[in-house]
């Protein structure tokens, strides 16, 4: 590593639990909610293209509440100079980490030559990462797949990782399946290519100095905990979004503290919601992230229904959330 400007390390207990970057889902309101549930989790933004960070509406794209820390900005792109500039802007905006997306398989992304197709361009990713590390003081990390299409050789995968690690990146999030660039939608690409956690485990075994976080298909607390025997952390995406109480259970199980009820956590989020409403944010933009809080619980459907139906009405405020909660609590008592 001599001569290489290494990215700062992330403390081990800060990578154990994380919530995946998810477009249209992990906006600032969602992250602030997840923070209430999981005080120790690392949170990730939606992917923002480097060009958008540089030329776009930064106030909107980089919106972040101080309660969210530690929170990472995920960038898309493949031009080292632009990524470096965007990384600097992200760090100046207060993000604690800049993550480079090397895993997204959508057509739009492939046309722009970023996301998962970068798995076949390790030298370009290394150059990008080196430029980002030189441009900003916070950790620069990479989220990738195991390969694209029919790439199934371990050597190719580990060459990708080694090339980027040699550029100074110490921390990798591995969505443990291939991306198929032809014929699958992004949604299918999160479900169809088989999961192979053993490659993430092997990476950690063979490159113990690197931080390896495993992602993909982690559905419950037992599965998430099992990964910790092999890698540094578990990143949850859809399960965290659809059943957010799981985040709270994991945070308590892995970091300690007392388990709080769903209602208690929801009320702890109230000051954030009221501050946003006072700024003119519509309730529906916030409550859409809360719908899964009572998933699988008595009254869970009523909670969802009251919020879905009422939150778009003019003047909808915290009272609606209390109304949904009251119905749910009544169902639970019965
Ligand atoms: C709605 C949605 C949007 C996503 N957007 C992104 C994104 O912006 N950047 C990214 O790296 N991955 C994105 N992903 C992939 C997730 O980060 C994660 O890798 C994937 O869902 C697998 O994890 P899971 O099985 O725990 O959901 C997205 C996934 C979903 C469901």
From TrEMBL:
Q: Where is the active site?
A: 104 (proton donor)
Q: Which residue numbers mark the site Interacts with tRNA? A: 101, 187, 190, 301, 304
EC code(s) of this entry: 1.3.1.91
* InterPro entries reported for this sequence: Aldolase_TIM (IPR013785), DUS-like_FMN-bd (IPR035587), DusA (IPR004653), tRNA_hU_synthase_CS (IPR018517)
Is RNA-binding there in the keyword field? yes
Domain of life of the native organism: Bacteria
What UniProt keywords apply to this chain's record, in alphabetical order? Flavoprotein, FMN, NADP, Oxidoreductase, RNA-binding, tRNA processing, tRNA-binding
Q: Does the keyword NADP apply?
A: yes
Residues that hold FMN according to the record = 21-23, 74, 143, 175, 215-217, 237-238
Which residue ranges does UniProt annotate as crossing the membrane? Answer: none
Q: Mind telling me what this protein is named? A: tRNA-dihydrouridine(20/20a) synthase
UniProt source species: Thermomonas haemolytica
Gene responsible for this protein: dusA
